[in-house]
Amino acid sequence: MEIRIQGVSKHYFSEGKTIKALDDVTLTIPANQIFTLLGPSGCGKTTLLRCIVGLESPDSGEISIGDEVVWSKDKGIYVPTEERGLGMVFQTYAIWPHMNVFDNVAYPLQTRNVPRDVIRRKVEKTLHFVQLEGFEKRPATKLSGGQQQRVALARALVAEPKVILFDEPLSNLDAKLREETRKELRTFLTELSITAVYVTHDRIEALALSDSIAVMRAGRIIEIGSPQKIYFDADHRFVADFIGRANLIPAKVVQQTENATVVESPLGVITCQKRDLAVGATVTLCLRPEFIRVAPGSGEEGANVVQGKVETLVFIGEAFEMEIRAGGELLLAKVDADTRTQVGDTLHFTLDPAHCLLVAV
Ligand code: ADP
Ligand code: MG
């Protein structure tokens, strides 16, 4: 079920001040995808989700789920939350500790007066799906964090919603469990082929889980794309910086060739990924630490070779993180764990043009 959001704005008034939580958001969330709203805390993710759900009324605009308009300021339409056909897994919408697993999952059906044998069948089917068969009688308090999360998912799915929405559902889990649960969640959601809207401020979670990511800042959608597109090929500096570690270097376009854009920067003349930019334009060169490679040998010269001095070297297990002073800039590079490099060495680095990304300033 596709979700369409058109011109949605939302202001809050708090302590005499106006807060623009959503600023004219227009967005189409495609059917049967895992679609993530990613952005820093306070950028309006939860507010947008609450508007879709109907827990919050926008100041303007229109929201449709499938063919149905569920909110329209102009047309005076408001479809209540329980009639929107949604399932929700919210951070603050935890499972009920005083109930067992069966009752937690059955709850949304019980409130709809579904016959008891139908409830039993649907709860069992859903518990089987989230791999919690046999846990029906277990008190919610006797579950691990990951199992509680699966109960919350089962409860959101039991009424067979058209859309499922998540607001930072993994943020209370420890790092290892979070990793496992997000993998599991992706498997479950892909299998269901349901429209899922997922809110997080965690870039790794967004990359690992999503089919598409919308990056938000200050109540606006800045950029939308697949995880790969957002990571390797962002259009905006904010997006490139938010989605992964990046060295951001001021640059100026000096030449356009058939397959590349050439810039002048403190690192010298660098051949970059082709971008449609005017010669003379001011841009930002974005280099991911993992694509700054130590060149074999010394004194090598040529295109995209940069000389620099190693200032710090930190062992992080699978790699070394190295800070290199080059052309007055301090670059972060991630290099192989078996490197023989030491602090103070002067080295040459190569930059693959395909991974020299140019973003708007
Ligand atoms: P996010 O989920 O991205 O962290 P929110 O949607 O919760 O962001 O909040 C967006 C902005 O709106 C923030 O500045 C927040 O402080 C403000 N805000 C959210 N809810 C309320 C509210 N009920 N009253 C006043 N301000 C709010
Ligand atoms: Mg939030």
TrEMBL record:
An example molecular function term from Gene Ontology annotations: ATP binding
Superkingdom in the source lineage: Bacteria
All copies of domain ABC transporter, residue ranges: 3-243
Annotated keywords: ATP-binding, Nucleotide-binding, Transport
GO cellular component: a single term: ATP-binding cassette (ABC) transporter complex, substrate-binding subunit-containing
Family annotation (InterPro entries): AAA+_ATPase (IPR003593), ABC_transporter-like_ATP-bd (IPR003439), ABC_transporter-like_CS (IPR017871), ABC_transpr_MalK/UgpC-like (IPR047641), Mo/tungstate-bd_C_term_dom (IPR008995), NA-bd_OB-fold (IPR012340), P-loop_NTPase (IPR027417), Transp-assoc_OB_typ2 (IPR013611)
Matching PROSITE patterns: ABC_TRANSPORTER_1 (PS00211), ABC_TRANSPORTER_2 (PS50893)
Signal peptide: none
The keyword Nucleotide-binding belongs to this UniProt entry's keyword annotation: yes
Pfam family, any one: TOBE_2
GO biological process, one term: quaternary ammonium group transport
Protein name according to UniProt: ABC transporter related
Organism: Desulfomicrobium baculatum (strain DSM 4028 / VKM B-1378 / X) (Desulfovibrio baculatus)
Lineage: Bacteria, Pseudomonadati, Thermodesulfobacteriota, Desulfovibrionia, Desulfovibrionales
